[in-house]
Amino acid sequence: MGVAVALAIVLLLVGLGGGYVWGNSTAKSSSTSSVQLTETGSSLLYPLMTSWAAAYTGATISAASTGSGTGQSDAETGLVNIGASDGYLTTAAANNLINVPVAISAQLVYYNLPGLTGHLNLNGTMLAEIYNGTITTWNDPLILNAQNASLKTALNGLASETIHPIKRADSSGDTFLFTSFCYESWAKWPFGYGTSNLTGDTAATGATGNSGMVSALNSTANSVAYVGISYEASAGAEPNHLQYAALGDNNASTTAGGIVAANYILPTSTTISQDANLGLNGLNFTADQLEISLILGGSSAGPVTLSLGGGGSMPTLASPAPYPIVNLEYMLIKTAPTGSVVTSTALAATVAFLQWAISIGNWASGGTESTFLSAVHFIPLTPAVAGYDMQELATVQP
Amino acid sequence: MATNEGPNERIDPADDLRRGETWGLRWRTGFDRWMGLLLPLLFAVAILPIADLVYFISAKAVPTLSWHVVTSYSDYQAHDTLGVPLMTTFLFMALATSIAVVLGLFGGIAAAEFLPERAAGWVRMSANLLAGMPSVIVGYFGYFAFVLYFGWGLSFIAGVFTLAFFMTPYVYRTADLAFSSIPRPIREAAYGSGAKPVQYILRVGAPIAFPQILTGVFLAMAIGVGETAPIILTTQPGLLVPSTVFQPAVFMTYLIWTGFSQPAGSVALTLAYQAAFFIIVVVLALNIVVRVVAGRFRKRLQGLYQ
Amino acid sequence: MSPNPVRDVSADREPLPAPSSPTTAGPKRLRFRQPVWWLFAYIPAVVPAAIVIAIAATLLEASHLHNFGAAFFGLTFNSSTNQFGMLVFIVGSLLTAIPALLLSMGIGLGIAIASTTYLPRYLARILDPFVDLLAGIPSVVYGIWAFVVVAPIFGLVLNPWAVEHLSFVPGFAGNSLSPTTAGYGLPISIFVLTLMALPITTLLIRDALQSIPKDLWESGLALGATRWEVVRRVSLRQGSRGIWSAAFLGFGRAMGETVAVAMVIGSTAKLPTNVYDVTYTMASFMFETLDAAYGNSLYLSALAELALVLLAITFAVNLVGRRLVAHIYAEQVAGL
């Protein structure tokens, strides 16, 4: 038996050594010459990051989907080259980091109410109260009064069905966006601005991952959930005919009998890019040093507001109605070489990659959005933001 | 039944006993037979879920597998290829097992042979505590110790050491038990013949304890290959097989954790199921090997008691 | 010794020698003068102890020994207002681990008894490994399977059945919030934890039953008892230490399970209002919110202190459990 074991161990070692040598020799052709970069962070950005990494030939980039908080923390300590985050990191300068927006994404609110045709009209106040547990049934007057006549009767017919709100159980940028939206919409929102985990929310059930949200939505009747726009196709493919809501803007006017928003906007690429454009064009970034986390749509009654990293908001321009929950996706990189991972070569390669991502990664030749973005339903950066990015990248000293 | 033999029948008290005995015996025997039928059915409670789980994973993974998928080293983020993850996991396990074996073997033998009784008790207790610790906490510790404090960063070696620390107590305990249970007469004979401790361990103890230690090593490997939380916290997945130990490296369970929440039809989700399938296959194979070795060991140990 | 034709059976009764009994002959307390021995022998021996101490120290350091006061064991958890009441998580852990323990002990006892007494040996040898296989499946795979395959069964079949037929039992009547058709919550979490603790309990009870000397078994049968009666009155009592150890170690495993539970527990920080309700466990909470806690040092301290609570419970349970089997020689016990 000892002979058998010894033979097995020898075979194992031979296999190991041989496989190692053979594998390394047949690995990606550019591996011996190109730099290896590491990225970690936002799970919302992960699909886009992997498709960018696959197409980019200047470096070998490995991505990980660990959460915005981890992305920020690892970028700060210099453990990875790129930290992806859904929200602006306000302490970036103190840690020799810069926030580089690379794409614009949006969030949808889905609901499972079989038998209802059309899209429900919901706004931030309603959603905040639903998730807080203040509104418990679908035929609450606040919700009813915002619908058109046919939906109103249909909804009323649901006769006090309990709403089951669904949240993300794992830490996520989607939760970050949603809590920011609720915070901006409802003065009594108790869970703070931009937390990536709604642990304190006792009214909502948790599901893991965006696909978990979709399947939880599908299997729970009368539920509502917030889903990243990349999952629009998955949600549409579910058997229970999940539908997304038309979101009312933040600056709805109050009338007697409830809040009625002037416009409820469906999420299309037009409305989303309108929101981004109107929010970001014309802003002087270097002078204002704005910390943009969430772009809330405006209405004919009021201006577009930009929700800032610290929780304040800054009104900018009047506009027609764009879609409310739109945000910038950030990548955090160091401004100077630090430690053994963020070396000089790596930093230069990182800058080169980001320049590629902002230009070719966002825009295909011909001025249309690139296939990378359209695959995940993100929209390209506005020219103002792209310009700001290039300026920022120029400040990095590899 | 009491025999009716006319007015002179004697009532035999034993008849009552026998009557009670009959009913009681029937009931007891019947109960025993029922238990004999019902209790084995409880096996189904354990076997059906695992069969369903294996079927579920296999049904998702096997149709997508092919020779190309398993051997190709191209970018697994873009294409469904498992070459890099398989090789890297192999390296992970080889290195982590080596470290765990060195620490566990030497430590276990020391606890069994050399340490004073009280110290050995404390060390045994801490090995048991380490084995029972939630994996998140071991991962958290690995992050603080290897990634941050030692400065190794999110790398292959940080993951290897965390995994090795996770696996050590199992090897430790097996080595300890193996050497402690070498029959007294043999140990006394060895030392009585003038053997030095090293000679005893190498020439007497090792051959006897070897199969058991081997099962312990394989069990530790089976446990290590399925760990998720320690790896997520201490490594960064890499696209290439690491050529130095400080490079990123991808472990199979990392693929599962990243991929299961991705959209249907994406590369990551397919990889997740395939990785799960491979881990289950490896664990199954290791369990079978453990059974075989343990079985042969039992026969061998019986021979020592003649 | 007088020539005795009857074989002395007392030697047969003796179980295999206890590990490291103090009376083991030979140079047990070896004194070494050569320093090379220290390297090879003593340093690896203390590595597990060093790791355990290092883990505890790391957590203590991370918690900054912040005194949260009595509010730490309160019910309110809201990170944005810096309220870190952890009672929900502790209760949630207990509410999932204790029923899982009871179920896995019950099933484990049944399987172990079946395997050692009722099944023919070839069948037992074939079926036993399948139970042990449960221990080798990674936790995340359990979670995925439970989320995709089992949750609909609980949500659409089992929970509604229980609400319909068992509502007279306090706690089993549903309300408008739970159960939902999704199936997350306590019942499925208990199911998953039972499956994960089952291999440990089964293995330990089986080893306890197998280490009972055969002549006790035979004498019981000879007295006219049925197999069940021998098991119940003799084997279980003789193996009670092993059975208690199985309980403690199974409980430790159930408390420590993280990823599988995290995916089906519902992740809501509230006390359950009925048996179908969603809640949170300590381990799943720690795992899921670590990312959100990075920017908030109080949050991190609270998480570290919760980890210390979990560690203390795990330590206590494992300590007692292992002490009970310290005397049993079982080559596969070491594998757990």
List the helices and strands and how they pair.
The complex is a heterotrimer of chains A (398), B (306) and C (336).
Chain A: H1 2-26, E1 35-41, H2 46-55, E2 59-65, H3 68-76, E3 82-85, E4 97-112, E5 121-122, H4 124-132, H5 141-144, H6 149-156, E6 164-168, H7 173-185, E7 205-207, H8 209-219, E8 223-228, H9 232-237, E9 243-244, E10 246-248, E11 253-255, E12 258-260, E13 264-265, H10 269-280, H11 285-288, E14 292-296, E15 303-308, E16 313-318, E17 326-334, H12 344-359, H13 371-376, H14 383-394
Parallel strand pairs in A: 1-2, 1-3, 5-10, 6-7, 6-8
Antiparallel strand pairs in A: 3-17, 4-8, 4-9, 4-17, 10-13, 11-12, 14-15, 15-16
Helix pairs in contact in A: 4-7, 12-14
Chain B: H1 13-61, H2 67-71, H3 83-114, H4 117-131, H5 135-149, H6 156-180, H7 184-192, H8 197-225, H9 229-234, H10 252-259, H11 267-302
Chain C: H1 10-13, H2 35-63, E1 77-78, E2 83-84, H3 87-118, H4 121-133, H5 139-165, H6 186-210, H7 214-222, H8 227-238, H9 240-256, H10 259-264, H11 282-293, H12 297-324
Antiparallel strand pairs in C: 1-2
